[in-house]
């Protein structure tokens, strides 16, 4: 057996025991991971800062988000109704007789989580994918991101302590490092792997998706990959609020040096005096932004290359760029504009440039704006900036935007993703490989489960969630009605 065989075999054996633990035991484990991370906060934040160049306040906030995610999933499974229990009782009088059928969601098995470079805590070793998978009852193998390998190792140390204190199986979570094309590939191809969570590049996500689908037994890959998060600015708000909009959007475009999957990379509007004012103010705001170091060398090089390619396209005009030249490893915050006509003729302009860059599309008419939106691929988010009068006059655009993305935002910025039950952080391809399952928020647990129907089972053979006396006291659909009481 090679190393990956050993890891995956351990994960499979641990799954057999971990999946059977009570919800309270699994919740206790998730809460204990949060405690152990909190205990090591100062040192974790320090190492992550050294490895990722992300500032300390941001990392402290991200660490809090990470422990809150773990606690959120602990509460979800303690409450228990997430299993979607549905019970249809037998009816022997019916012709033909109706059988007793009971359905719930059960975990799939060991899953592989790829750490994301842009969130060393919240989307990495003990991040959302790990928390949701552990909550579901799946065991986890983390492939740490090489750009923050030490942070990843330290997070795993916190998980290991929680494993011992909580008494869950030793290999409930494992951690490996190494290159994606060898270690990552072997993990995805391994027969014991039942699902994959990934955040990163389109090429990386698609490579893993292909590997997973070429297996003898294909498995799902939940990859979040590429999004330019179009923002539509309507005329009345541009006329009335150009200055506020420029400040708000300059801040959103350059937040975290643009290294967010929800970064607003495309701004769309119909030409007007209000739009001219907005773009001129936006250019000035961007010029005042100080370049900062990006996450790692490859991301900075990829941004510099992408930016140069984007700016070299036909019809592109730079409307603002940091007056301070970037130093080594730093990004060059930039906004540019192009006509709706040139945009429609050039698919290259619809590609993600990951970093602090945004392209404004100046449309001739509302019809051209609709054409430009229709030409876009699937997105994580789309935003509409509008007054009430704008909304009344543009219902068709708002409706179109709903077909485009997993989250539609009114009068706010797409950056900043709330972790809650109603969040959708997913979207049609190529934003993700599977728009049905969010990576942020409690419904992420559904990535790692499948429904199972028990037909004709005796009560004592059923999982607790489906037993007559409802020992977990969860909400269930019994003969078509939501109920908590005994049958
Ligand atoms: P990445 O290059 O896609 O890497 C993410 C993880 O996947 C790493 O562990 C990497 O392994 C692995 N991987 C990449 N290609 C693979 C392949 N062909 N086969 C197997 N495993 C593979 O992402 P990144 O390093 O985070 O950033 C690079 C680019 O990704 C950015 O410039 C940006 O365009 C994009 N990005 C997008 C988002 C988003 O949410 N939309 C977020 C972050 C990054 P290695 O350790 O060998 O690299």
Describe this structure in words.
The chain is built from 15 helices and 17 strands. With 487 residues, it is α/β, with parallel strands linked by helices. The strands form three sheets. Strands 10-11-12-9-8-13-14 form a seven-stranded mixed β-sheet, with helices on both faces. A five-stranded mixed β-sheet has the order 15-2-1-16-17, with no helix packed on it. A five-stranded parallel β-sheet has the order 5-4-3-6-7, with helices on both faces. The longest helix has 24 residues, at 56-79. The relative contact order is 0.13. The mean pLDDT is 97. The protein binds NADP nicotinamide-adenine-dinucleotide phosphate. The site of NADP nicotinamide-adenine-dinucleotide phosphate has 27 residues, from helix 7, helix 8 and helix 11.
Provide keyphrases for this structure:
487 residues, alpha/beta, five-stranded mixed beta sheet, 17% strand
